[in-house]
Amino acid sequence: MNTENNKAALLGRISRLAGEADWTAEELKEALREENVDPDQFVKNVRKRLSPLLTNRERAGEADNRNSEEARGFPGILAAAKQKGLSSAQLAATTGLSVVLVTMLDRGLISLGRLPKVIIERLAQALDATTRQVTDYLLIGPRLAPDASYKAEDTPELPEPQDFFEAVRNDPALPPEYRQQLLSLEGNAE
What we know:
- There is one protein chain.
- The protein is mainly α.
- The protein has 2 domains: 1-37; 40-188, lambda repressor-like DNA-binding domains (434 Repressor (Amino-terminal Domain)), CATH 1.10.260.40.
- 61% of the residues lie in helices and 0% in strands.
- The chain has helices at residues 3-19, 25-34, 39-60, 62-71, 77-83, 88-95, 99-106, 117-126, 131-139, 164-170, 176-183.
- The longest helix is centred in the first third of the chain and has 22 residues, at 39-60.
- Residues 54-71 have low confidence and may be disordered.
């Protein structure tokens, strides 16, 4: 099969999955892997192509972005926690994460590529949301902190999302028992 046929087949499969009400990020990653496409690289390429559009949208105002997320019924991880009366510390304790990890997830600074499904499920349960809502929110990618102001003329550059397990290893605020439990999920993440 030539490259164009491979791309067409892959796009067809992604379109079919996207059309189903219950497709998951795991199914998309599996489809990409079956076509020998690295899911993390695929997401980076999509983000790179969409970056100019997203940057223009951010300059036009974060309110636009928040409104589209609220229209889907999910305002974001920390916003949903606040609506439920949970602090970021309470959400972190409920999900077995740290405040740092919860904040990184909320801002799209952790790659969805190896994020264990159980973490998405814990967040969804704690926030009375569906796993699809949480996954869709995480797929948006890196975003600036809400209500932050910057003195520079240009919008600050956002870092590439970090691997979940790398973030766990590097989080100084994560209690050792949480770190051990989260790292035990690493073999099941792919």
